[in-house]
Amino acid sequence: MTLSVTRTRIKFCGLTRPADIDRAVALGVDALGFVMWPQSRRSVTPETLATLAAQVPAFVTRVGLFVDQSAEFIEQCLPHLDLIQFHGDESPAFCEQFGRPWIKALRMRDGLDLHDAATIYGGAQALLLDAYRPGVPGGTGETFDWSRIPATLAKPVILAGGLTADNIARAVNDVAPYAVDVSGGIEASPGVKEADSMAAFVRHVAQADIR
Ligand SMILES: O=C(O)c1ccccc1NCC(=O)[C@H](O)[C@H](O)COP(=O)(O)O
């Protein structure tokens, strides 16, 4: 019998507290997301981003989340980011202009064709697939029908939306995504991560990776 191990990358999103960053880094999380959209209950200011990002060690990716924000604001945040995550209706040309790796978040509304999206956002490093709730650009804590994700897609898939320690093993087994992204599922309250939930999430991903 051959044992195959695929390491699913993990991104924790909506970090606001130094202690949560330390914990995530200690757990071996690959990427940390900072919500730069002021309407979010998890948002941080550019000043706080600078402080938090300085705490992140090498080889852990600092990701900034934006929702239809100005190029000037994004530029202001860029010195503290390794990668940009776009959650709005940004055009591919808008996303490209920063000369920085970027990913596009897509909400799985009815009729969305992921093959078309992979072509349209051809410059993206990956597509982050999230649940669709009208008027809410992300962080809903809701899952979507994972069977809508094609087995082969021209872009790596980052699975998001309502993931928790309880459903993450099934998600990894069913979807085999490049990476998984969690926010609400590891929280005590918006922006406040919970140590045991973070550890359980990482442990369940690692266990699901051994198949
Ligand atoms: O978290 C927010 O408040 C938010 C606001 C605006 C755009 C994106 C936002 N969050 C994105 C994420 O946290 C994740 O990429 C993803 O949506 C997973 O969230 P969750 O379902 O809570 O695990």
UniProtKB/TrEMBL annotation:
Keywords for this protein: Amino-acid biosynthesis, Aromatic amino acid biosynthesis, Isomerase, Tryptophan biosynthesis
InterPro entries xrefs: Aldolase_TIM, PRAI_dom, RibuloseP-bd_barrel, TrpF_fam
Pathway listed: Amino-acid biosynthesis; L-tryptophan biosynthesis; L-tryptophan from chorismate: step 3/5
Keyword Transmembrane in annotation: no
Catalytic activity, EC: 5.3.1.24
Domain N-(5'phosphoribosyl) anthranilate isomerase (PRAI): 11-203
Name this polypeptide is given: N-(5'-phosphoribosyl)anthranilate isomerase
